[in-house]
Amino acid sequence: MTISADARSPGDASHEKGLPLSVRLRRALCGVAMAAAAVTTLLGATLSTPASAAPVTALLDPAAVKELLDGRAALGLPTEVADYGLDPQSGRLVVELTGDRTAAVDELLSGVDPGVLDVRTGMPAPRHHATLKGGDTIVSGSLRCTLGFPATGGGRTWLLTAGHCTRGSGTWSVESTGQALAPVGSGARTAPTGTDVGAVPVTGAGWQARGLAGTTAVRGSTPAAVGTPVCLYGSTSGRVCGTVTALDRTVNFDGVVQYGMTATSICSAEGDSGGPYITSSGQAQGIHSGGGTGRGCTSYFTPISTALKAFGLRLLTG
After folding, report:
1. CA nearest neighbour of 288 among 134, 167, 133
2. Deepest of 57, 160, 195, 311, by most Cβ within 10 A of its Cβ?
3. How far apart are the first and last CA of the chain?
């Protein structure tokens, strides 16, 4: 900064003493103004640093970067982010994206030195894999039934159950531990009158159906002959077993006639409707419809071949 010719050094104090007080005050104030202007100019130059310049405080420590991102993640992550974490071999922070790097990702990584990052694209999107299997409790409104067998068709997964459960139903949920309900699907289909089967499409995210009936893996669907042991998995009865007692029965359920049913010696209960029948060798037999009690127990199911044919589905095996 250059001092003007009118400014005086401390050695010129004797000259100032001869001047009137008003003149000396004006010169003092002028000096203060000049100093303030110089400081303002310097501050302006400092604060006007282009935003595009590399941040002086860019994070270089991968562990510190992860801590920073974890804090930002608490407010939500961009949908493109699959995961991120430290790679102990490279010493860099790996950020995996399901698609291309977007402006939202750039904002998440702002202030981080690019040298500590390893950004990878085209990674699969993570999904929760809650399991659906035969015998699970399914609920729609006040209805409680049982999931029969998972099946596939039309590019999606379906859950077979009883038709008297799905007729006129809304959204279906699976009852998990502690009786919490998790939505699994809506838009159920019901077979025509006379065939008591329905199918619920899995439309909820994060579900993975398995070819299981209870703990028994589904291996096929060979029909069992009369006298063959079979087990039913019901949401009320749990696992109950008996034998096949008759085939191709026409059954009257309180005035509703069902055709082509198989009868067993198993005792069942309300809420078991839709449950799966399976042999010990993993052969799926059918979908539970109902039963009766009196001189022993009788329960009835729609054969699995009839249930699958009603919707053009294929049985999911384990």
Report:
1. 134
2. 160
3. 84
CB-based contact 57:114 (threshold 8 Å): no
Distance, in Å, from the CA atom of 146 to the CA atom of 214, rounded to the nearest integer, reads 11
Q: At 36, phi and psi to the nearest 5?
A: -65, -40
Single out the residue of 199, 210, 209 nearest to residue 308, CA to CA.
Answer: 199
Strand pairing class (172-175; 137-140): antiparallel
| Residue 178 φ then ψ, to 5° | 80, 15
Calpha distance 270→13 (Å, rounded): 109
Q: Which residues 6+ apart lie within 8 Å of 292 measured at CB? A: 298
CB neighbourhood size of 166 (10 A): 26
Q: Domains, the chain, ranges and CATH?
A: 62-120 (3.30.300.50), 130-315 (2.40.10.10)
Q: Are 254 and 128 in contact (CB under 8 A)?
A: no
- Tokens linked to 138: 């399914």
Note whether 222 and 212 are within 8 A (CB). no
Mean pLDDT per 10-residue interval, the chain, length 318 residues:
39 50 50 40 34 51 89 86 88 89 93 92 67 89 94 96 93 80 93 94 90 95 97 95 93 86 93 96 96 81 98 96
Instruction: Report residue 78 as tokens.
Output: 């961009």
Active site residues: 164, 196, 273
The number of residues in the chain equals 318
